[in-house]
Structures are given as C-alpha cells and as structure tokens.
Sequence to fold (732 residues):
Amino acid sequence: MPRRRITQTDVAAMAGVSQATVSFVLNGSTPAGVRISEETRQRVLDAIRITGYTANPAAQRLAGGGLAQILGVFTYEATFPRASRDFYGPFLTGIEHAAERLGVDLLLFTSAPVQDGRRRLTREGWQRLGVADGCLLLGQHEHRGELQHLLDTNYPFVFIGKRGSDGGRLPYVGADYVGGTVRQIDRLVALGHRRIGYVGMRGTDQPTLDRVDGYRSAMKAQGLTTRFVELDDVAATAAEIVDQRFTAVVVAPENHPEELADELERRGRRVPDDVSVLLLGQPHHPRRGGRPWSGFSVPREEMGARALYLLSRLVADDSPKRDRGTGRTPTDLELHQILVCPDVEGGTAAPARDPRPETDNRTDPA
Amino acid sequence: MPRRRITQTDVAAMAGVSQATVSFVLNGSTPAGVRISEETRQRVLDAIRITGYTANPAAQRLAGGGLAQILGVFTYEATFPRASRDFYGPFLTGIEHAAERLGVDLLLFTSAPVQDGRRRLTREGWQRLGVADGCLLLGQHEHRGELQHLLDTNYPFVFIGKRGSDGGRLPYVGADYVGGTVRQIDRLVALGHRRIGYVGMRGTDQPTLDRVDGYRSAMKAQGLTTRFVELDDVAATAAEIVDQRFTAVVVAPENHPEELADELERRGRRVPDDVSVLLLGQPHHPRRGGRPWSGFSVPREEMGARALYLLSRLVADDSPKRDRGTGRTPTDLELHQILVCPDVEGGTAAPARDPRPETDNRTDPA
DNA sequence: GCCTGCTAATAATGCGCATCATCAGATTGA
DNA sequence: TCAATCTGATGATGCGCATTATTAGCAGGC
Fold:
C-alpha cells in the first residue's frame, strides 16, 4: 500500500471540474480576473471535505506560491548538553510561544554537524534552511562566510543577541547588558559601596564587552576606580577579592558565581554581609538550593518571542506576495531591538559594612 | 533583488553538461545503468563548489526522490505554559539528541490551533504534517478521527507514552509504570511497611491506570489490602492518611506530593520518619528546595530519543527507496517499547517505625 | 560494411501546485 | 442579427529535481 496522497486532481475529478479550479477555490483570491460561481465553489469544497484532501506543502513551495509558514531556528552551539539546555531553554520557550501566536511551525536545525561544540552552517546546511521561510540564529560564534551567504541570497534571518562590529546590517534582538550593568553599579554605590570589583572580563563575546563597557562608564560616572579581577581559578579570584578589600563585586554568570561565593565564605567573608555579589545575568547552571542572586536578568523568553515576530515580518515583507499587503514599507520595522534587563532583588546585596578606608593589613595568599 | 536560487541547471550550464548529469553526480548512485566519467564528475563538482549550489528540498521532495530528513513533533497539549514545559522539556531534550545523531531536522508543529488547552490536528494540520517524513506524537488525548487518518494515509508516526486500548497497532515508546510501582511497594514492604496507601487514582490516562494496576498486583502478591485515598483536596487527603494510620503512601506526581507532605507534617507526621512517601514518577512542578523524593523516575529523555530512532526506522522502511536497504523486514523493529523506570533513592522513605498492628482508634473524617 | 556491445551522456517526463492566457457560452447594445 | 461585453471556467506552463528512455560515439567480431 504505497501511501498515495490525494491531490487536487483527485478532488477536481470528484467535483467534475479542472485542477485549476480547485486551486482557485482553495486560494480564494484569483489574481487574474478568474471567477468561480458559488455553486461550483461549494461542489469543490464538498469534494475536499469528503476526500480529506490536504495540500502538498512541497508542491506549494515549489510552485512559488505561498510561504511554507515555517520558521527555522539555528543554534550555533549544540543545544543538547544539559548545560546549554538551561541556557537556551528560555529562548526556545519564547520562540515557541510566538510561533503559536503566529500560527507557524518551527524547524529546529538539529542536522547540521557539530564540530568542536559549535554547529557549522555547511553547504548541506544551506539546503535545509530553504525549507523554512526564514531563520532565527542563536549563539555567539557565527562564521563570516556563512553570514555573507545569508546576505547574498537575501534569505530572511534574525539574530538573537546583539551584534556588534559591522552588525549594522544584521537584524537582531538583543539585551541591554550595558544599561543593566550600569544600574547594578549605581545600586551598589547607593548602598555605600566604593570598592567595586569586576569579575569576568575575558571573552570577546558581545555580552562581555557590553558588561565591561557598562562597568567602566558607570564607575567613571561615579568617580570610582575600575578594578578588574581576572585570575584563572575561582579560589584565586576569591583570594584577590578578599585581598583587595572589595566590598562588592559584579560577576558575569559564566564565571561560576556560586563557587566564588563559596570560596569567599570559606575565607571568612560572608555574602552579602561582608561582600555584596551582583550577578550580571541569570546563572548558567542554576543549582538546587543555590543562592538567590541579586543583579539583573536577561529577558530571554521575550527576546525569543520578539525575534520571531521580527522574523515573521521580515519574511512577510520579503515575500513576493508583499504587494497585497498594506503597502507598509519595510523600514518601519525595528531591525535592531535592545530589550531592558530588569533588576532582580535577591539576597546577595547589602549595604557596605564599613565605608571608611581600613588599614592595609592584607595577607598575600597565592 | 528577488532572491534567486542557484539551480542544477545553472550548475549544468557552467560545467557544460545537462541538468540530469548534475543530478546523477549529486546522487552518486545511478539506478539505471547511467555512467558518468570521472572527468565530467569533477567538472560538475567544481561547478557546484564555485556556485555554492544548494538543492531545493521542496523540489527534491516533490520529485519523489529522497526523504526531507525532517521529523515532526506534535504535542497535543500546548507546550508553552511553564508547567508543561517542565514536563515536556526532557522529552524534547532526548528527541533533539537523537535528531542530532541521526542528522535530521526537527519540525515542531506549533501552528495547530489550541482549543481549551489541547491541540487539535485539523485539516490544516494535516497539510503541515506532510513536510516531515514522519511524526512523533506527545500527550494524552489524541482524537480518534485524527488517528484514523494517520493510519489511513499510512503516515509514519510514533507515540511517546504507552497506548492502551486498541493501541495494538500504534507504535509507541512508553515507560514501565506498572513495574516501577510494583518495585516501590516491594521496597516499602521490605522496610517493614504493611499499611500502604495509594494517592491519586483518578484519571483515565494510561500512566494512572498502570500505576493503579501495579499497586493492586503488588499488594495482592504481598498479601496486603489495597487502600486508596481519593479526596478532593490535599489537606483532606493528608488527614485521611493520618487517620488511617498509613505508614507509607505512594503518590502519583500530579497529586501535589509537596503540598501533601507539608500537610502531613503540619499534622505532626514527619516524612519519612512517621510516614514514608514514594513518588511514582518525577514531580511535575519541581520547586526550589523541594524534597528529595524517593520513588522511581520516568526516563523521559531516553523515551524521546528511542521514539525518534524508532520513527526514523519506520520512515526508512516505509520509504520507496527501501529496497536498496539490507532487505531487512520491518518486523524486526520493536513497535512497542517499554522502558524501565529506575528507582530513585531520595530521602522520603524510611523503615516502618512500628510494624506491629495498633488498636483501631480511628476517627472518621469526611 | 554491418551488426553487436559497451560507454557516456542527454532528452523527456512527471511530481502537485499556482498562475497566466485563453476560451465557450450567455447576455447585452445597436 | 452581429459585434461587444461579461461570466465561469479550462488548458498550458513552469517551479527544481529524480528518473527513465533514448541516443551518440566508438571498439570489436563476423
């Protein structure tokens, strides 16, 4: 029993009309001045109902007709490992939500080969992209050539996460790491902190750059000295924090804040009583019974949703059927969206215990 | 700039050959005795490399050639709400993992309309399914007609979760709730428990039926009396447990075990010292700092992965290109897989405090 | 010189659909 | 009564690919 699809031709035969007529009835609108009588229309609709006809999307796509109503999601890093699952999960949740509301299906490009933990968009990959009307891109390390190909083929796509250098032409939905970080510094200053360290400046990814940027400008605006702590392991970092008599530190979530706090307490510095620790984003690997972090959170779900909405509009505007629309020009869509990262009131921030400068009675650990 | 795809014809022109030749080179095998010289082959491959040609999957699909290498995932319940996200997440993780290994893409059918929290597979939906080579079905409440259509069209699919009544012909990957529950009873008996209650027998879903089944048969095998507690709210349930002097209860995860334990302790019965509570599955809404439950866990990730593998094989066997394969008959695939639910050693099970029968000083509550 | 056998490739076809150009028949205007 | 208009529909075409049938060219056997 070779599964035979019911085609428009089958329906047409049953209704006693031509295949073209069926197509017209289905698409409602008739571009050229083609008219279908109500009677015929009903006959066709009945035939469709009886046969249970379902259009073949591949054929629709090929015939250049409509969109597939499929939007793709490409993740540069492999999403599978538990770790990144925690990270990507919220994005996907937001994306799914938006997809439901838009009535589109989601295509997860899980087929692209992962090389050293990073998914590449190979030639093979390009083939697959075509199934979707457009694509969301998640992750940091996009490849130059790949991007160029996207632009060349005029394939609609949207990045999740701000694109910095020469990202001017790339549509994205990002988070305001700069503003979020600035606010954390201001909060700490308001609590009486002066010696505020920054942990985790390594990395050339955009979030890191933005956080450092925010830290620098906020400290400068407050007239304070920037102090970066950048050591190889958590223990050394904690030692340095103690040593430098910081009363507060801001930490990027990928820098093992949980372990850092543990190390601090092991050295007799309680969090937040002795040292406030603010997290610049959500913990990447939340652990059971972990600390309730203060800091800011990245609105990942909303980013996902907004990105999909944006993509959806790009696709619509890009579609050959665009002219049927409201005639709205593409320029009124915000190609670069930066979302606010709301503050999180946890339990790791407290007023500075002793704002006055102490004697320099440090002991050298490492 | 109307995005123009590069087609096989373009490649052919560049290589100075016919479109058919390009197709042959790409597909390697030539069913009929068509030969391509090594020299020509190279010329075509070069042209492909230069042009960056990527096949159009829609066309491939339409031409009846290969599979789209896309497998679908249809979720009956809306996956979006946080609650069900926690539940479905692990399945999806497993599915994704399998998809990566199989080199297929995943199509999430988020487009189907959700009616009172349940997604329906409407006519619209059928259209969409066709994009994928086959489909995974998640969730309890499938619609009869929908299933029939699947069977009629011979569309490959696999259920996640055991199918009971007349599910004989439906391929599925389920979990051994029966066995898992039996083992919990046996564990409790080994710990000296005799008065073992069952909480949460409502519901006609398969897991519930299986759990009740397991409880019944295990208790019978141990020569003990089955005792079901089925009240409307958690407080009343806790009261009943205390009242009946159960030394242990097994609870289905959808019955608010966390709240139940709280209520028990509020009534002076510590868990597990006074009452052991075993969970028949993972908590549906894990809460921060929740109890470390003893019981068994449902291997959701593995179920997802196994289901996708199974689907993949069904698709392959069903494909018109099957004959090229090893000639393996479809019958050697296990259409009904039941996975073991491993025991979880948490902290909510303890030896029965007082195994000897007490006087029957109960007070009647509701 | 003609047929056979073999290699290397091409032409032609169809998948299911959207769309354009065309057409038959009915109605109207003069 | 014949052309002009309108209504309601059909035939033909092509999307990009896989595949089958066919052909061109050439070596060898008789």
Summary: The radius of gyration of chain A is 27 Å.
